[in-house]
Amino acid sequence: MSAATATAVAPAPATRTGAEMIWEVLVQEGVEVVFGYPGGAIMPAYDALPRYPVRHVLVRHEQGAAHMADGYARASGKVGVAVATSGPGATNLVTGIATAMLDSVPVVFITGQVSSALLGSDAFQETDVTGVTLPITKHNWLVTRAEDIGPVLREAFAVAKSGRPGPVLVDITKDAQQASCAFDPADRRVARPPRPRPARGATADALARAVALIDRAERPLILAGHGIVAAGAAAELAAFVARTGVPVASTLLGLGGFPATDPRALGMMGMHGEAWVNRAVQDADLLIALGMRFDDRVTGNLATFAPRARKIHVDLDPSEIGKNVAVDVAIVDDVRQVLAALTPRCRPADRAAWMAAIEAGKGDSAVRDIQQLPDTGKLHAAHVLHDLWRLTEGRAVVVTDVGQHQMWEAQYYKHDHPRGLVTSGGLGTMGFALPAAIGARFARPDAEVWVVAGDGGFQMTAAELSTCAQEDLKVNIAIINNGYLGMVRQWQELFYGGRYVATPMRSPDFVKLAEAHGLTGLRVTRRADVAGAVAAARAAAGTVVIDFRVQAEDSVYPMVPSGADLGDMIRRPLKSRLIETGADDELTEEPPR
Amino acid sequence: MTAPGKPRLRTLVATVEDVPGVLNRVASLFRRRNYNIASLTVGASEVPGLSRLTVVVSCDDATAARLEANLWKLVDVVAVDELAAADVVERDLALIKVRADHLQRAAVVQAAELFAARVVDVAPTELTIEIAAPRQRIDDLRAVLEPFGVIAMVRTGAVAMARAGVTAAADLPPSRAASGA
Fold first, then answer.
1. Tens digit of pLDDT for each residue in A114-129?
2. Domain with CATH 3.30.70.1150 in chain B
3. How far apart are the C-alpha atoms of A536 and A533, rounded to whole Å?
4. Mutation test of the interface with chain A: which of B32, B63, B75, choosing the one with the most A Cβ atoms within 10 A?
5. What domains appear along chain A, each with residue ranges and CATH number?
6. Which long-range contacts (CB under 8 A, 24 or more apart) does A116-119 make?
7. Torsion angle (degrees, nearest 10) of CA A98, A104, A105, A107
8. Which residues of A are less than 8 Å from B75 in CB distance?
9. How far is CA A410 from the centre of its chain?
10. A229-261 pLDDT, tens per residue?
11. Catalytic residue among A138, A161, A174, A311
C-alpha cells in the first residue's frame, strides 16, 4: 500500500503487526505529528508509518525530538509524541524527558528496544532505557509482545495527561513490532484501568477557611503558577481577581495565566522578579498560591519567606503540600474548580490601599530600568525584548532558552494569554528553545512563533535549523548575542570576583549559518534597527535568524542571590558608567567573538 | 506521645501490583526523595497479582504524609497506609549465629528460650538461633547474645499489618481499596 492510498484505519485484515498497532493507537489518540529519528530497533515502526496519517518530523538529534514534543504539548495543551531507537537514540532523549518531568508536561516517548531474546545480553545498541528513565518519567513500560502494544500505549497516553501531567516512556522490543496480533478497530482497552486514588478534593471546611482568610486579609497576594495554565484556569483566575481585587504575582511558568497588562498583574516574582513585586510578597499578610510549588527560585531563603503571611496552597498534587513551605489551608484539587468555587463565596473588594502601597514601590524600579537609559544607539537585550513585545502586540508564542535572555523576556515581553510563553523553568535546559519552537509551530499553525535564545544555548541545538529548512517551517529566531554565557558570567561578576572562567564564547557567524541552511540571516547592532529587522523577519516566508549584538556585560536586575532573603535584592546600580553613558568599560563596537 | 515535628520510626504498608520493576520504583522513590529507610520488604499478598510491601522509615509527620502522597503517585501502587504504632502487628525474622562451645552452649540456649527464640542449627562450637518478633525484641536478644560472640546476623526487615479488627487501606481488596479519604 502506498502513502497515496493511506486512510486513518487501513482496511481488513483483522490482524496488525505490532509496528502498525503503534500508529493505530496514535491515530486513535488524535496524534497528528511525531518528532523522531529512526534506527535499527525502531525500523519496523518506521516502515509502517507511511500507511498512517501521521506527519513525522525528522530531527537532527533525539534531544531535539524530545524538546519538540514538549514544545508541542506546552503550546497546545495536547500530548506530544517523540520516537527514537534503542541505545544512544533513547539516551539522547534523557535531557528532554527530564525537562518535561520537572515542568509537568504530557509527552509520550516511544523507543525501540533490541529483540526480547537479546534483552539483558548487552546486545548492539541495547540500553536499559526503562531503568535509565525511571526517576524522570511518571511511569514507563517495557513491551515485549505485539498484543500488549495497543493496551499499553493507551494507558501511556492516559497516564501522561491525567492528574498532574508528565512524560511517560514506552520501550518496545523489535520482535514485538514485527509480530502480528488480532486487531479490532473498536478496541479501546487499556493495559490497566486507572487505580482509584484517595478522594481528596476541596472540602467545604477547607473552602470556608480559605474564604475567611481572603475576606479578612488586608494585604493579600496571589502567586499564580504553571497550574493555572495547565488546568486551563485563566478565565476562572480573572473572575476571582475581578471580584476579590487581589493582585497577582506569577512564577516564570505562570506568566500568561493572568493578563500581564491587567492593572492587578504584578509580573514575575522570585530571583529576577521586580523589586516592588518581591517586596509585596514579603509584606503580604496572605499568600494565595495557585498551582505553584514554592520553588527555591521563587521563595529565596525559606526561613524569611513572606514572614507575615498566612498561606493558602491550592495544588492538584498532594505531595506538593508542605514540601517547601508550611501552609495554613491546603486544598488538593483542580485549581480551576477551586477558583470557581471560591469566587462567589468571597466578598467583593477593591483593595485600593494595598494596591497603592504596592504601586508606590514602582517608581524606584522605573528609574533603574534599562529602558530609561539615555539612548546612545547601543543595543541592550531589554530593548530587543521590549520592542519585540510592542511590534508583535504581545500576541506571539515566544519560546525561550535558558539564561539572561530568558529573564529579560519574562520581564519585558508582557504575556496576556496562556501558552504564549514556552520555557524550561524547572530543569533550566539550555538548547530547549529552537526545538521547542518547532514543536510549538505545529501546535499553533496560526500563531507567530519567536525563538529568543542566547548565543550559548542556541548553539547547543542549532542543528535543528536544518529541520526547519527540510520541513519548510516558519520560525523567527532572535539570538541575544553578548559573546558570553551571560548568566554564568553575571554570577562570576557578582559572586566570583569577576573571574570569567570559561564564559567568553566565540560563535559562528549566525547570518552565514542561517544562509548555509538556505534560511535568511540578519544582524542588528543598533536599537534603531530592531524594528526593521523584526518586520523583515515577520514578512519573510521562511525561518529567519536575527543576530542581535547586544551589550556584552549587561546583567539581569534585580537579583536575589541564591539562598538569600527574597527582600534582599541586588539592584541595578544607579551610578555607573553603564547607566550614565550606556556603555560598559570593556565594550567595543563589536562584542567579543 | 511524640511531638509531630520529631522524626520517629514509622511503618507504612503498601499494596502494589506484582509486576517487574515495582520494587525498583519504590526504592527509587525513597532514594531520590532522600528518605531514610530502616527496612523494606516485599512479598505475596492474599490476592493473586498483588504484592504487599512493608517499609519502616524514620521521618517526621509532615514528611510521612508527603511520602504517602508520593507513593500514591506511583502507577503500580494500589493502596498505601501508615499504620499507627498501637494498631500494628509487626514481625521481623532474624537468624543469629553465636559462638557456643560445650561450656557456653547451655547459657546461650537459655538466653534464646527467654526470648521464645529457637535453635535451628548446631555445630560443635557455634549454633544458629531463629527469632521472629518485633524489631526491638530482636535488638534486645542480640544485645544479650553479644557477650558470647555473635558471628553473623541476618534479618528480613519488618513485615506488618493492621491488627485484627482494625481496617487499613492497604488491607482492603483492590476494588474497595481507595474508597476512603
1. 999 999 999 999 999 9
2. 89-159
3. 5
4. B75
5. 3-182 (3.40.50.970), 204-362 (3.40.50.1220), 370-581 (3.40.50.970)
6. A116/A144, A116/A173, A116/A175, A116/A176, A117/A175, A119/A144, A119/A173
7. 60
8. 138-139, 159, 192, 195
9. 12
10. 999 999 999 999 999 999 999 999 999 999 999
11. A174
Indicate the fold that domain B89-159 takes in CATH: Alpha-Beta Plaits (3.30.70)
Joined together, the cell numbers standing for residue A368 give 533603574
Does A435 sit behind a cis peptide bond, omega within 30 degrees of 0 on the bond before it? no
Residue A1 forms contact with B (CB below 8 Å): no
The residue written with cell numbers 534531544 in the block is A63
The 10 Å Cβ neighbour count of residue B40 is 17
B8-87+162-176 CATH: 3.30.70.260
Show the cell assigned to A546.
Answer: 536575527
The closest alpha carbon to A62, from A32, A96, A101, belongs to A96
What are the cell numbers at A288? Answer: 494565595
Confirm if B68 and B77 have CB atoms less than 8 A apart: no
The answer to whether the CB atoms of B178 and A322 lie below 8 A apart is no
With CA atoms as reference, report the closest residue to A245 among A348, A366, A113: A348
Task: Please tell me the pTM assigned to this model.
Answer: 0.92
Q: Supply angle C-alpha A49, A11, A48, rounded to 5.
A: 15
Beta bridge partners of B98: B127, B150
For residue B147 the three cell numbers come to 557477650
Q: For A462-498, what is each residue's pLDDT tens digit? A: 999 999 999 999 999 999 999 999 999 999 999 999 9
Rounded CA separation A305/A308 (Å): 9
Give CA–CA dist A216/A288, Å, rounded.
Answer: 13
Say which DSSP state A566 is in: T
Whole-Å CA distances, A240 to A173, A263, A342, A412: 50, 14, 8, 26
Is A323 a catalytic site residue?
A: no
Contact (CB, 8 A) for A117 and A175: yes
